[in-house]
Amino acid sequence: MKKHIFVFVGFIIFLGCKEKLDSKAASPTVIQEETVQENVYTVEEIYRLAEAKSIEDTFAEEDLLETKQWIEEGSIEVVTLKVFPNTPRELLINYTDINKSIVHSIEVYAYDSPWKSETGIYMGMPLNELEALNKKSLRFYGYEWDYAGAVDFEKGALASEILFVYLGTDGDVDMPKEFIGSDITITAEQAKQHNIDFKVTGLMYRPKK
To answer: How far is 97 from 103, CA to CA, in rounded Å?
Structure first.
């Protein structure tokens, strides 16, 4: 009987020790994940890193992918360096030269990504929150063209000639006919009337040269 008791107690002690070891083994991973989440750069910081040619020193090689594309309705060909390519955190750095010395713009289109701006705008920000930050009513352009959802801050607090903001939706939404077209502008009130939850789905930072 005593033997059985000792075996049982030993087993309990073993489980307790294993639990502590497992907990200790998991902690570095948790710390690492928290560190990654803390190191979220703004689009303005990314631009400055690109200008200083420090992108390759900041991000791991496997987190970068170089491609080419045409932007601005096919008028400019750029070399694009993708950060975290093909992931929800993808960010685009566009250069106008093959040596990646002249930065054209920084773009983000993954609405649920962690990227943000120094202005306080962040990806996924709801329309009503964006309008409150602007301290004035705003308008945004219609859909089904290259600059769909581009925001006009109407000379509010967020008005800028270098930071461009785009509104969209979470997933596919059938837009009303009056929301479609390049010559259409939409107000927050109109969005509410149609019960469509618009949010920030695009940021482009392009300082003037």
So the answer is: 8
Judgement on whether residues 93 and 163 belong to the same structural domain of the protein: no
The H-assigned helical ranges of 39-177 are 43-51, 55-58, 127-134
Q: How far apart are CA 15 and CA 25, in angstroms?
A: 15
pTM for this entry: 0.79
Q: Domain tally for the chain?
A: 3
| Residue type present at position 107 | E
Kindly indicate the confidence band of residue 209, based on its pLDDT and cuts at 50, 70 and 90. Answer: low
> What is the mean predicted confidence (pLDDT) over 11-39?
44
pLDDT of residue 84: 96
Identity of the amino acid at 172: D
CA angle, 52 then 56 then 60, to 5°: 145
Full domain range(s) for residue 72: 43-107
Tell me how crowded residue 132 is: count the other CB atoms within 10 A of its CB. 11
Same domain, 53 and 28: no
Q: Is residue 131 part of a domain?
A: yes
116 lies in a domain? no
